[in-house]
Amino acid sequence: MVIKSQTLEELSAVLAGWGEPAYRAGQVLAWIYAQRVTQWEAMTNLPRTLREKLAAQFKLTSLELARVQGAKDTTRKFLWRLADGSFVESVLIPANPALYGEASDRHTLCVSTQVGCAYGCRFCASGLEGWKRNLGTEEIVDQLLAVERHAAAESRSANAATGEPPPEKVVSNLVIMGMGEPLANYDNLLKALRIINAPWGGGIGARKITISTSGLVPQIRKLADDPLQFRLAISLHGATNATREKIMPVNRKYPIEQLVEACEYYQRQKGRMITFEYILISGVNDALTETAPLAALAKRLHAKINLIPYNLVEGLPWQRPTEAQCEAFLAALEKQRVPCTLRREKGHDIDAACGQLRLRTKRELAARSR
Ligand code: SAH
Ligand code: SF4
Predict the structure, then answer these.
(1) N or C, where is the chain less crowded by C-beta within 10 Å?
(2) Which of the listed residues 89, 91, 114, 117 should we mutate to test ligand 2's pocket, taking the one with most ligand atoms within 8 A of CB?
(3) Which CATH superfamily is 64-368 part of?
């Protein structure tokens, strides 16, 4: 068994079976999630015999940091090497990039859910080499823990002179928008999110967690019935089947009508929590004629639209439209009175679209071994 995939209830049941007092499970999880220790020996308020028994029964593994890109207080990318040698990424994005030199305290962490992706969207680096495997619950949970641990170690060394303690937490929001299709790894993801949401675990509110999907209709309906109030982002990228089909093969299985009905169901169950992601790709989906069907869908679902200029991916032919074209697309939507934002920041020079750091590292490793 793996400790970072245990809920409080599950661990309590195991420890009760060992004849341990009821408070023990909480103590163990506090070491893992509040103190973020990586060794059983560090859990000094547990009897040695119990630590040994736990170590024999549960794996306490941590992600290994292979590479980190970007400076403190800017968007940073973490590449993790998993136990089987696979790589996945997490991206830490400050809420207010430190334009004037002050540190940003709120951050959004973008986590991965699979190694590779089976859905093969034509523009995406994550799907380029297909799907390898689902991440385990603990591998999703540990992206948060490992980033927090890294940030704490960094601020401890930065504050070494003053002795000021590191902030308790840097991550306030989570987006499930890294590598992989989250809803294709439904059970492991949902369990990870329960742990990340729990007061004894990551302590991140469900409303601060956004799950992004390319549009898996049955799972959207299932998620709608889940009691936790996660936010949902739909990677739309095309407002008609003709446009969407060109770039997202998943649209053949779940065309827009079915997707929109599932979104309506989600919305009925949970309130207004849907965002449409729309990457702008030059000559593919950025014509102003696309804005009318897009605005109609957004109005029907009371959804907000996030426009994102395409990030170039090495080896793929797609281009980002000019700034003027992006602004014109935004203006056309605003004229139709739908809430809409355009991502303008330049944090994309570090391969900010997920999947790209992994791809580059894999290619470099392959070149070296040749
Ligand atoms: N599989 C899920 C979540 C991971 S992808 C999904 O597709 O929603 C997260 C977001 O990044 C998606 O909206 C995806 O379409 C977008 N994306 C992928 N490649 C991109 C690129 N090169 N530039 C900009 N956005 C990209
Ligand atoms: Fe997979 Fe999402 Fe990339 Fe599509 S955009 S290939 S679903 S990770």
Answers:
(1) C
(2) 117
(3) Aldolase class I (3.20.20.70)
